[in-house]
Write a structure and sequence with these properties.
By secondary structure, the chain is mainly β. The protein is 0% helix and 44% strand. It has a four-stranded antiparallel β-sheet, with no helix packed on it. β1 (2-8) and β2 form a beta hairpin. The chain is globular. The N and C termini lie close together (10 Å).
Length: 161
């Protein structure tokens, strides 16, 4: 299993990371750090990105969302993951590749756009994009009952690792 690009929520209570399973399944996972002193981290939620790695997901300033990129649509777009509900939505729909979003306090994102000259920083307004909704994409199949959807920690309590 691979564990990439962790981030800690602004209040220090949650940890997020991109996790790759040995079978190639890629997840964005969020854990509660409250039990860390006792040696436990409880899984709060996750989203399955199929075979597309969720990259550079970072918490918003209020800790409500995670923003990151993935090739889930075939091009590296920016996605917003709501931690409490597990809802994922595309906030970009581009033919250029967007990477490493940094949420700004006013609803905008600073993103790196890949160009023939390399990466170029650019401002981007964070808003829902039609036709690029991961929750409506075809499912890739998984061992879980509802693939690609938000799953709460209770589903994983009995799962062997």
């Amino acid at each position: 299993m691979s564990f990439l690009r962790p981030d800690i929520s602004p209040d220090g209570k949650l940890l997020s990371a991109s996790v790759g399973e040995p079978n190639g399944d890629q997840f964005l996972r969020v854990w509660d750090l409250g039990g860390l002193g006792a040696g436990t981290m409880n899984l709060v939620s996750e989203f399955r990105f199929g075979q597309s790695v969720p990259e550079s997901f970072v918490f918003s300033k209020d800790g409500r969302y995670l923003y990151g990129s993935s090739y889930y649509t075939g091009v590296s777009n920016i996605f917003r993951y709501e931690v409490a509900t597990g809802h994922v939505e595309a906030v970009s729909n581009t033919d250029a590749d967007f990477f490493r979003p940094l949420p700004l306090g006013d609803g905008r994102l600073l993103v790196l756009v890949y160009t023939s000259s390399g990466f170029v920083p650019s401002g981007h307004r964070s808003r829902r994009r039609e036709g690029c909704e991961p929750n409506s994409f075809p499912r890739y199949g998984t061992r879980e009952e509802v693939p690609g959807r938000h799953q709460v920690a209770g589903r994983f309590a009995s799962r062997s690792r």
